């Protein structure tokens, strides 16, 4: 994992990350409802103590806080974490948020009921030791029997087809029209890829501005991630497909073994 490049990627993206959603508040509520249902199925209604260890600008964390859970956010990007706290406050929710590397979580042991790591965040860890360190930290801060909720792209299918791009997204709001798309360059190992993230914004006028941001990801398959999660001290590993869960990515849930 190249921390400066990943941090720079999300520091730069944080101010307009919400624009990838047609309606960010609606998406926050929907994602919180889906993830909250998975938590409720295992741990009961709560409220629960939740750590979102890759909170970004707060898409999952704010929704879960508004649903009544006691949520703490952390993210590698201090710009994103600060925005998450501000956006939560603007909506009447408390969300303490801090800049932190998920491999070195700055929280005491066994303090959370749930750890969330969503939006393909774990894929920024490019080596087995990095993934192992992150999952060990998540297990450490979870109480025995606590729940890990982790989401990634559908890398089983992506590894099979090895696409060169992700589908474009088009949105329009008070800031004008925005077109977002990604180009992927696969490494020789067939597992990792360099990602170029393009944003074309018209700003409400005739001239389009272009922003390009670059990072690298590891396309972990379900079997690979299941093995990592089990080795980190989790049990009852389950995968939830978008068709059944309603979440936009496959979701892994697992219990912290006692």
Automatic annotation (TrEMBL):
GO biological process: methylation
Domain of life: Bacteria
Domain called Methyltransferase: residue spans: 50-146
Keywords: Methyltransferase, Transferase
GO molecular function, one term: methyltransferase activity
EC number: 2.1.-.-
Pfam families documented for this protein: Methyltransf_25
Designated name of the protein: Class I SAM-dependent methyltransferase
Organism of origin: Streptomyces doebereineriae
